[in-house]
Amino acid sequence: MRAVCAEVAAKAEQVARQFDAEAVHGFRVLAARPDIDAVLLLSSAWYGPLPIFAACDFAKAVYCTAAVAVDGERAEEIKRRIEESGIAFTAEFPRRQSPATLRLKELIATRLGPPQMLFCHARRQTESRPRPLVGNGSRREPMVEDLMELVDWCCFIMDRPPRSVWGVEHVGQGGKSDYQMMSVEFAPREGIEESPAMAQISCGRYLPPQWQEAVAFRPPAELQVCCEHGIAFVDLPATLVWFDDAGRHQESLDQDRPVGEQLLTQFHRAVTSLVRRTQDLEDAYRALRVVMAARESAQTGRRISLE
Predict the structure, then answer these.
(1) Strand order in 89-92's β-sheet?
(2) pLDDT given at position 284
(3) Where are the domains of the chain?
(4) Close Cβ partners of 176 (under 8 Å, ≥ 6 residues apart)
(5) DSSP 8-class letter at 127
(6) Three-class DSSP category at 96
(7) Taking the model in full, what pTM does it have?
């Protein structure tokens, strides 16, 4: 680590001391440094996608925690700038690399068969204070970031493109969305006549911070996967219970390295590789398209095609 930049200068200086790095004032100053090869965006901030644009201008690779929660028009610009610059781009989707997810993918290939229905749920607390304004004067929506990660998770497990989406939304006090649900239909497997697979994805942020016990009270499984030959229940990072004709199976899952370390290792490989990877960018953009289409569906009352 060579340099650190943050909204609050004192925070940047504190982190820089921990890693024997230099605190700099401004993301463009950081991206322009000749000793910097890659930029890690580790939190949302008021400047929105501007650090990504700076990295593109100076040909620096980008590792982005979660997806950049911006409107569809801005996302198009981000995608275009990254593609034109030719930089390596990694979007952090940690659910993909969790032990339970990787083991589930193995079981789908060997025991459970192709997934037919997914039920994915997340229940969160409301945030105690509003998020900072981004560059265009709007606020980042935590619900969008949550849903993007869930959509990507389901697409990763389905391993086929989403075809259409239908969404509903509840608007709570203050005109803010506190619950969203979507039904995503996936394209059938190539050369096979079958009913389209589907995923029901929901996320709620309706529990205030002072109701801490309510968040953890009888939570549903984060992911329920109905497959051709069985069913699996997943709770991250390492809980997996599945059933088939032989009965119940409880998996004991361990990992050699933390998920974050694995993601950074993959990013390092992408930066040093001579072959440019574009899949992360495409996956992040696809997840955002699905979330925005679900919002359009909730407003219009009709299913939205993604093809």
Answers:
(1) 38-41, 61-65, 89-92
(2) 87
(3) 3-93+260-277, 95-257
(4) none
(5) P
(6) helix
(7) 0.88
Tens digits of residue pLDDT in 186-224: 998 877 777 899 999 999 988 888 887 887 788 888 999
Q: Which residues contact 301 (CB under 8 A, 6 or more apart)?
A: none
- How many of the other CB atoms lie within 10 Å of CB of 161? 11
Which runs of consecutive H residues, i.e. helices, occur in 108-204?
A: 142-158
274-286 pLDDT, tens digit each: 777 778 888 988 9
Comparison of pLDDT for 239 and 215, the residue scoring more: 239
What span, in angstroms and rounded, lies between the C-alpha atoms of 15 and 40? Answer: 14
- Whether the CB-CB separation of 64 and 91 falls below 8 Å is answered with yes
Q: What per-residue confidence (pLDDT) applies to 211?
A: 85
CATH class of 3-93+260-277: alpha beta
Give the type of residue at 90. T
Question: Which residue shows structure tokens 């930049």?
Answer: 5
- CATH T-level topology, domain 95-257: Dihydrodipicolinate Reductase; domain 2 (3.30.360)
